Amino acid sequence: MDNYLILKTENSPSYELIDSGEGEKLERFGQVRIRRPDPQAVWKKSADIREWNDVDASFEREAEKGSWKTKPHTPAEWQVPFDTITLGVKLSPFKHTGIFPEQYQNWKWITERVRKSNKNIHVLNLFGYTGGASIAAALAGAKVTHVDGSKGTVTWAKKNAELSKTASDSIRFIVDDVRAYVKREIKRGVKYDAIIMDPPNFGRGAKGEIWKIEEDLLTLLNSCKELLSPDPQFILINGYASGYSALGYGNLLQDMMKGHKGGVEVGEVVLVESGAHRILPAGIFARWSVM
Fold it and tell me: Which CATH number applies to 98-289?
């Protein structure tokens, strides 16, 4: 882990971080401009307040809850392409859009790792959410098992796979608690050549099972080690608001992959403002690969 990487998502026709500051970010997904909270944006805003107010949708907090305020023309859903991946955007009740554009460079990395493996690899994506990483792997030629505890989110991921024109048999979608699923796969003797995971700080499985990262992550990684094929290709762990450092995730991966030929990279995923050219921290990652 000699290099600490900063993976940048720059302005593009698909996505733009227009401005950020004072606990908010101003973004464009395709042609739709939105305004929503971001606790990492602790600095002053650069853009004029009129630009901040000229949005199609804004997320406004009310005590412990929040809601979107939209203009009449704002679409309920729309689509945004990221290279060969096409993702559907919706304004969720929890300020999210279903897309994490900061993961763009990791999607490219996954694509490269699958293509360079020179074999038919099986990828397990845990906490797969709306499927960006699963689709990237599938379009590169991998067979993917996508697991998430939310039925609605898995339905969203299936739709994204259809929008991206993935082969119908390239992704297997599973609604389940990831820990329960991994245990069953171990008993079945199933092996995977690559594992991706995006564990939340706190969450619930398909049957209401409680997930707490500080209690469950190490156990999950130990179980995942039993799922690895004799010739694993890559592992990627993402983190959001967990309170952990990328270096901590890197140490976990180094322990997990001890004895395997390969290396660990760690760092942050960030969004680059199109105006002030500041970078907005958006998450951490650690990744191991054989190449």
Answer: 3.40.50.150
Tell me the C-alpha to C-alpha distance, in Å, between residue 230 and each of 66, 169, 267.
48, 24, 27
d(C-alpha 10, C-alpha 157), whole Å: 24
For residue 162, give the nearest of 276, 109, 85 by alpha carbon.
85
DSSP-derived letter for residue 103 is: G
Does 199 have pLDDT greater than 80? yes
Question: Hey, what CATH topology would domain 9-75 get?
Answer: Immunoglobulin-like (2.60.40)
CB 146 within 8 A of CB 131: yes
The four Cα atoms 125, 127, 128, 134 give a dihedral, to 10 degrees, of -10
Q: How far apart are CA 192 and CA 179, in angstroms?
A: 15
Q: Which residue has the tokens 């799922």?
A: 227
Q: What local confidence, expressed as pLDDT, does residue 2 receive?
A: 67
pLDDT confidence of residue 243: 77
- Whole-Å CA distances, 242 to 109, 195, 287: 23, 20, 17
Measured CA to CA, the distance from residue 51 to residue 69 in angstroms comes to 16
Domain boundaries, the chain: 9-75, 98-289
